[in-house]
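so the lab meeting is tmrw and i was supposed to have these ready like two days ago... anyway. pasting both below. for each one the top line is the aa sequence and the line under it is the structure tokens. i havent really looked at them closely yet so no promises
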Amino acid sequence: MLRIPRPMRRHAAMLLTLLMLATSLSGCFGGDDGPAPPVDDPFDFEQLIANTTWYHYANATNALNTSHMLNGTSILIGNNTPFLSIGTYYGIGMSTFEPTIGATSDGNLYMSSWGNGPAGSTAIVKCTGMNDMITQLEYSCANSYDPLLPVANSNDPYVYVDPWTDRIMKFDMHALLGMTVEWSDNEGASWSLPTPATSYSVQDHQTISSSPYPAALHPTTWVFCINGNWEAPLCSTSFDGGNSWSPEVPGAPLGCSSGGLSAHIEGGENGNFYRGNIGCSGSGYSIYRSTNGGFTWTEHPLPTEESGTADTWNFEEAQVSVDDGNNVHAMWMGLDNMPYYSNSQDEGDTWSDPLMIAPPNGLEGSGFPAITAGAAGRVALGYVGTTGGGIWNGYLSVITDAFADQPLITTVQVNGMDDPLDTTEGCGYNRCGGFGDFIDVIVDHEGRVWFGLSNNLADVGIFATMAQGPAMRGPLEPLPPLLLGGPSTLA
């Protein structure tokens, strides 16, 4: 046995005593209080996460399997905090084609429906009670367009609700015969007489928006753009709420040669208008900005050098949205058919590094991008995607802190695993069923995201949303949970 000499034992005892004394005093002088308490799991919702919900970062990085601590601090705090989320959808009771949607401040939702109005006209489907399905799965959808002389059905129906005035605009495109505009200021109870919106060009792939840009005869200025078989889209402006329209002007700089197809146009609180499509000379994707009510446009290229651009039917779909703080958000499909996102805090002059926003579920491809925004830095992105086998699902991704160094992305599949929206092999890459050429997504006045889609197998238009999830406007908190919809609402 090892023996320690007595003097050394006394010395060791003194050191031990001093160590114990120092330890007992450390709390009084701000020293170590012992082991750090365990860090709370930010995904501990005290409820199971659905198998159709994914919490992730860019490049399909699963946040549940990745540390959220950086230099001793969680990155999932403040506006980047995760919320329990689950997707669902509700049928409108009739078919749709290229569904455009809108919401009024009364909480009513609207969707265009090709050929289902009176005398075969375009129906404007009004759905009430969808935000109230907290205890009962009850809502109502019916056509709200019923004038004495309905406008004949068009090949590209379009509805848009002005978020500043609640005016519902119905646009019907009649190819070589021009485009007509009607509106309602009373939730579809009555409609204006139709007014002509174009005079001389061929019409296709129209898109319409509004903004508070100064207008002498109406609170908001309206701009629409169309594919007029010219080198760039052609755009027209109304300063009197749609009663009259300016001559068509190029929707891009002269000589741009971007092609005439344009994604949805978007108006901002500061009066700017934005739209996206192929860049000038056919390179990459660009966002085009107008600061004078749609009369002239400047090009602002997106950072697509690494992602490339989609080589599919809806190749022009570089979608754009503006949040309540006038920040600009863009979405596009890359050459790999994956969804990408970037934002600009200077009206499109510069852009953030792009994020590939697909969830970690083995997505093989996607199409039909759609984007919307609410409060500053809160953005929602919709698209259809496949994990193989010709099965196409609807996906809705929200980012509540787009300006974070590492934004958390919450993605929900809006349909169940056994309830696909389409089973056509190349659906997301082509004109496909009720999706047509494009789909639509908005944030309503309560801060809930609504996604306009079609259940192509049932041939029924659907409003998809997060039955549980974060508010995209107002305080960043959970929205009141809705009851789940799904196939039972398609009948």
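ok protien two:
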Amino acid sequence: MSRAVWIIVILGTLVIPSALAVEVHDVRLWRAPDHTRVVLNMSGPAQHKLIVLNNPSRIVLDISNTLLKASFSKLELENTPITQIRSGVREGHDLRVVLEINAQVSPRSFSLKANERAGDRLVLDLYDKAGKTPTVKKSVTQSAKRDIIIAIDAGHGGEDPGAQGPKRVQEKTVVLAIARELHKLFKADGGFDPRLIRTGDYYISLKGRRELARKEQADLFVSIHADAFKDKRARGVSVYALSTSGATSTAARYLAQRENSADLVGGVTLSDKDDVLAEVLADLSMTSTLDTSLKLGDVVLKRVDRIAKLHKTRVEQASFAVLKSPDIPSILVETGYISNPSEARQLASSAYQKKMARELHAGIRSWFVDHPPSGTLVAWQRQQQGQQYTIARGDTLSSIAQRFRVSVAALKGHNGLSSSRIVVGQKLTIPTT
């Protein structure tokens, strides 16, 4: 064989590995309230094309140089717009996946690069095109005693498991359990109406979570998470609020970057900006939303301190995308370090999940009982109980009665006083007139 022939053979051998087909080794399906997600786990990256066909309705994925080594037959298609998924070989080496559809959808596909937790993936989202239900605005003209609406957000979900601890304890599972317990507690309260942002194991974008809270006309948005760090000794509960001017610590900045990267699972790049971001930040600087978030977060932190070690003794701040609501007080609670073996065992425990939910509930409820939004049942109940007043130096019962335009007899009777003697620091309840 001539030297030239040998060179050709060697070169041909060298290019064979790059021509090897990518394999689809697993397929999964997730159903969310507003969309269906199909995920193809790949052995490597591959180019693809999305095609929409009508009569009959079909969604087609053409994936270059790819072999199917998994099966679509075991996917649960019930309650999805997909009636059947079939596949075939196209042009000798490309994979064609065809989804037969029985409802109007808006398809979107994107690739996810391999990372430390998962390999390459191809994601297909089918968004429902059902007619939108008009949002019912909160209005005191409809009811002077409306409920306080608490939007409870379990972080991560679906294709995004969040952090993972020992024995494969997953953040998305733990925080959904805590969120459900918190929902139960508020559901049992009069004057409160809890709404779960994520009701099952599916993905919602960070912006989508904010929009759902806004649609529900929430008075508070609380996002529940479990922290993780490379040092397994890290431990403790933290509460965060939004920062418009930088993180309050390196750890807060690191955590915000990690939590914000959850949107990569939805095909959103970290460089994406909300169209109204500048307006949101301006609003936050001019309103009491951020101040309320910080004060409410501090009350929650003090309650959680009763059952768990705190990672930080104050509410930390960073640029969390999920907290960027201009008109809804918002906090993010890291319920412990799932990367810490001891705390991971606690977080996986149903008893501890309930205990954590009880303290979150007590802190949030305590804040709203003391600072109820106007027009709510809780505000009305507080008004019936009367205003609290703390006796200051120089006060007399008659001067207090005159100031609040009530009689001395009504003031004494309402507070169970047998005489007009009062002391500095004593608390009086002012009866309603």
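from a quick look at the 2nd one: The mean pLDDT is 85. The CA atoms of residues 147 and 190 lie 8 Å apart. will dig more after coffe
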